[in-house]
């Protein structure tokens, strides 16, 4: 599609407002934001609907690979055993979670306009 091809669509005011807010947050024009999000949605649908066409031999090999035991990887084992610094942001203990929410609320409340 040439860059000067047009796509026209109708949207309710509420839909436009819904689109404009994240577009502004990302410093994108409405058009750029809509096109980017539409392309991402198309990719997701396409990837979710991916079909693998195997003949009988390929299917058997594929199933064998899925059923094969996982090889030990010492580097991955070490990585998985490490405590991540950022993990408390996503799974904080209850007291930390409360403090985190209070701090976030204060940040939102006190953010410059």
From TrEMBL:
**Any one biological process term the GO annotation gives:** regulation of DNA-templated transcription
Q: Note the InterPro entries from the entry.
A: Ribbon_hlx_hlx, TacA_1-like
Q: Which GO terms fall under molecular function for this chain's record?
A: DNA binding
Give one Pfam hit by family name.
TacA1
Q: Which domain of life is it from?
A: Bacteria
Q: Which UniProt keywords apply?
A: DNA-binding, Repressor, Toxin-antitoxin system, Transcription, Transcription regulation
Which SUPFAM superfamilies does this UniProt record tie to the protein? Ribbon-helix-helix
Q: Which family is this protein grouped under?
A: Belongs to the TacA antitoxin family.
- What name goes with this protein? Uncharacterized protein conserved in bacteria
């Amino acid at each position: 599609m040439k860059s000067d091809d047009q796509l026209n669509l109708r949207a309710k005011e509420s839909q436009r407002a819904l689109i404009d807010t994240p577009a502004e947050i990302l410093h994108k024009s409405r058009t750029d934001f809509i096109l980017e999000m539409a392309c991402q949605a198309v990719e997701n649908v396409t990837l979710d609907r991916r079909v693998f066409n195997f003949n009988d031999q390929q299917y058997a090999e594929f199933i064998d690979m899925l059923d094969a035991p996982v090889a030990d990887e010492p580097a991955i084992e070490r990585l998985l055993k490490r405590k991540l610094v950022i993990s408390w942001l996503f799974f904080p203990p209850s007291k930390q979670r409360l403090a985190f929410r209070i701090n976030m609320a204060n940040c939102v409340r006190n953010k410059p306009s």
